[in-house]
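pinned: reference chain
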Amino acid sequence: METRKDYIARLAEKLRAWDDKIDELRDRTDGATADLKIRYKQELVELKEIRERAARHMTEVREAGGDAWKALKEDFDKKIKQVKESFKKAA
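pinned: its structure tokens
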């Protein structure tokens, strides 16, 4: 079973990976056509919001007492699938 410490480390790694993807999309925006720039900028806003929610979740897990972090983990793991789809769509 994954410990809270391991879970937080895994979340931190995901956040770093998402930051890289956001930077990559931002770089693509610079050389894009006007229509693509609009689309990329909208996707960037959405991805940044998702990333911020994930960061808040990580803080909640850190601060959760006892086994409460496990319930947060289960809920967040379901949401991760949505995040992955958003990043795939933006790629």
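why pinned: The mean pLDDT is 85. The helical segments are 4-30, 34-63, 68-90.
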